[in-house]
């Protein structure tokens, strides 16, 4: 009988050599005449251990990592196929502290199953939610999602059930489900991990959404920066269609839903929902004024559910286990879990799925183990390039949408980027404006012109040219962008700028001794 | 590649994709996948086929960072400029990449081997700094690592 060995196919694992490791294992097994069945899973999200190879031994999966292609022969010599000791041995995967302490709902299967195996997906609870939804009325499916308290995981945190209800209640010949997979925020990679590691979960979530609102066609709008996710999604969609999870008669329900992946083309703004719709229609990704809401007049003018990858991927478990199961995680009005993504200057970077309410300090120190450089962590950007920079005295605020909003920050997509004390926060503020200038769609003046002027004002401020005046100008500019921009691109660029100024004024050459 | 041959490929991709809703982006991707860039005559051909103005097609091509209106080198190397990479030395890597290749962003090395481009996040943030070489992503790339990638690309060409 062959031994089952898992080697990730995840982009980041492969960026560290996972494909080469898989090839080396296959070659070495053949040379030694050993029967090995290679399965390609997603990543468990412990990137300091990638490529993480797992061997199935009885009921357990034993982990070895980080494995290089050069180390493979030695692993065979040591007898890793029967779980033998080796310097790279990490013991049972599920017992690794970083993983064992998580609350994985949406990511329950990521890194566990062979990404493209429908059999493994089903064996781990897959398509239970869709099977249930296919027997329910659309109203009942929407109610289940509403009752679970799921809010959009893409950043805006709008209640998903309310959005779905609007689409359900809007009569139309054709409705659409549009999955926003344009994960452009620096420090976020959970969409990519989910799509690469558990593509059927997204497909199932979208099919449930389709049944819930009466949409027969779905689009996944995927970033062109994710070529591997594209290949995996397209293979998974084909396989799901062949078996009848997609197509004209979804799971024998008599109802139709099909899916197509559309590639973006390297424009950050297309992560904004209306810009994404324009792009899906084959146009420049320029934001639309709202109203009308996309739920009423969205893609090609039709009612459209637009959700982020993680929102849609959270739906199967809600339908499978019921609203209450999901709602019982979290606190306040932030229900369920969020996959937090730890990156930047940290010892243990990766993905941590936990209920809302965890603090930055726990994530940065208990999970990530502090900075990679060994120096103090000075600033943390939460929520992508338009998120605020937080100093250490804010690390204890529980991660909850309302509490973060109250301190002028946002959780966004759950991306957390840490910087040590070598960071120049004035340069990070300048970069935020520069990024906005590069990525603005150009439709509204505050964003298009404001960001360009913002870079100039910060440059003059740093040159020490009439500081008081430049500071007043920068404040006024930020006000204009925040209040006058058409969408969050210009409206939130002041977040990183203002937080950098507020918490790290010395980096801008501002004398804090005179401050009140 | 002769312009005639290019025209055939563009026409083929237009014919294959024109009937899909929102066809322009998928066709542009197909053309760039086949040719490596979007040649100027594609604007006119697309406008005619999709009943758009040339200005509209031009507007779309130039709006997106991904589409190139000049032929790239034999390999495209993108260096991530986003925050997670900056937190672990991306600025140094960018400066090194430009200096060692002798080009700025958007330019191609004198031997035609490598076009250097900036990119704002490859989703490889947990293994920063990140570089994309054609469709392959590399993680934890320092200056020496970058040089090894470039050496490998050039060595592959010599042996090919």
Automatic annotation (TrEMBL), chain A:
Domain of life from the UniProt record: Bacteria
Annotated source species: Nitrogeniibacter mangrovi
PANTHER family with a match to the protein in the record: NADH-QUINONE OXIDOREDUCTASE SUBUNIT F
Family: Belongs to the complex I 51 kDa subunit family.
The keyword 4Fe-4S is annotated on this UniProt entry: yes
PROSITE patterns named in the record: COMPLEX1_51K_1 (PS00644), COMPLEX1_51K_2 (PS00645)
GO MF assignments: 4 iron, 4 sulfur cluster binding; FMN binding; metal ion binding; NADH dehydrogenase (ubiquinone) activity
Phylogenetic classification of the source organism: Bacteria, Pseudomonadati, Pseudomonadota, Betaproteobacteria, Rhodocyclales
Coiled-coil stretches noted in the UniProt entry, renumbered to this chain: none
Annotated keywords: 4Fe-4S, Iron, Iron-sulfur, Metal-binding
Domain NADH-ubiquinone oxidoreductase 51kDa subunit iron-sulphur binding: 426-471
TM spans (from-to): none
Pfam family for this entry, one: NADH_4Fe-4S
Cofactors, names only: FMN; [4Fe-4S] cluster
InterPro entries: NADH-UbQ_OxRdtase_51kDa_CS (IPR001949), Nuo51_FMN-bd (IPR011538), Nuo51_FMN-bd_sf (IPR037225), Nuop51_4Fe4S-bd (IPR019575), Nuop51_4Fe4S-bd_sf (IPR037207), Thioredoxin-like_sf (IPR036249)
Protein name: NADH-quinone oxidoreductase subunit NuoF
From TrEMBL, chain B:
CDD domains per record: TRX_Fd_NuoE_FDH_gamma (cd03081)
Cofactor(s) named in the record: [2Fe-2S] cluster
Any one Gene Ontology molecular-function term assigned to this protein's record: oxidoreductase activity
InterPro entries, sorted: NADP_DH_HndA-like, NuoE-like, NuoE_N, Thioredoxin-like_sf
Keyword Iron (UniProt): yes
Protein's UniProt keywords contain GTP-binding: no
Binding site for [2Fe-2S] cluster: 80, 85, 121, 125
Signal peptide as annotated in the record: none
One of the Pfam families matching this protein, by short name: 2Fe-2S_thioredx
Keyword terms: 2Fe-2S, Iron, Iron-sulfur, Metal-binding
Cofactor, free-text remark: Binds 1 [2Fe-2S] cluster.
Family affiliation: Belongs to the complex I 24 kDa subunit family.
NCBIfam families with a match to the protein in the record: PRK05988.1
Protein name: Formate dehydrogenase subunit gamma
Lineage: Bacteria, Pseudomonadati, Pseudomonadota, Betaproteobacteria, Rhodocyclales
